[in-house]
Write a structure and sequence with these properties.
alpha/beta, Rossmann fold, 2 domains, two-stranded antiparallel ribbon, 6 helices, 27% strand
């Protein structure tokens, strides 16, 4: 089975948002990067599928050459191949252009199943996975937190606002991974050493126009400073008054 995990290099959660001089983007100076959390689930599920069904796992990302660090981490966990579709400024893309470029590469790889995170932890679009399935013409099973996958298809459970939904599907398919699906493994020393001999291919992605233009980025307004209205039981009347007249939540 040919298995693909799509991953994204994102800023760490400690990154501080600073506006760039153009007023339409963020200044990444000083940022550190990591693998998007939900994409870790996708890589783990890809590896588990390989262990059960056989085959090979290819990790694909669209981003700068520096993303080799995150791809190499996936190889150390057990992935067989890594591909970087080189783009020095992936943040300038919209989800459509990203999905279309990924779809072209996945078709070329002859994949049977693709795992993605349900959402990237930087931009929070949750759009690339479903769009990817659309461009591939495959089934899309989203927000999956439990999965049984065989050579021909599988059964998945996904949480919705109405409860847990159980669906069956046939391969090929795109599966977007949610919390609870698995516990991502860490790379072993053996895996880290083996990853050093694995190659990461770098190539140009399919040229796709971006149809969305960011015209302005601004930080949210600063919160008003809090205040102490009193201490102990004596503060209750003042607190209730403030909640009624100022916060207007009572």
């Amino acid at each position: 089975m040919k298995i693909v995990a799509c991953v994204k290099r994102v800023p760490t959660t400690e990154a501080t948002a600073k506006l760039a001089a153009d007023g339409r983007s963020l200044d990444p100076t000083g940022w550190q990067y990591m693998l998007s959390f939900y994409d870790e689930l996708a890589v783990e599920e890809a590896l588990k599928t390989k262990e059960k069904q056989g085959g090979e796992v290819t990790v694909v990302t669209l981003g700068p050459s520096d993303a080799s660090k995150e791809v190499r981490e996936c190889l150390a966990r057990g992935a067989d191949h890594g591909v970087i579709l080189k783009d020095a400024d992936p943040a300038a893309r919209d989800p459509r252009s990203t999905a279309k470029a990924l779809a072209a590469k996945i078709k070329a790889l002859g994949a049977d199943v693709v795992f993605t995170g349900r959402v990237a932890t930087d931009r929070d679009h949750a759009a690339v996975g479903p769009m990817l399935a659309t461009y591939l013409g495959w089934a899309c099973v989203g927000e999956v937190h439990a999965l049984e996958l065989g050579a021909e298809g599988g059964t998945a459970k996904r949480e919705t606002e109405h409860g847990v939904e159980t669906v069956t599907f046939r391969l090929p398919a795109v599966i977007t991974c949610n919390k609870g699906l698995n516990e991502p493994r860490r790379a072993s020393l053996k895996g880290i050493m083996a990853a050093k001999s694995k190659t990461i291919a770098e190539e140009a992605p399919l040229a796709v126009d971006t149809q969305t233009l960011v015209v302005k980025v601004e930080l949210p307004p600063s919160r008003k400073a809090g205040r102490i209205v009193g201490e102990g039981a004596a503060a209750v009347p003042a607190l209730i008054t403030a909640l009624k007249t100022e916060a207007q939540v009572l």
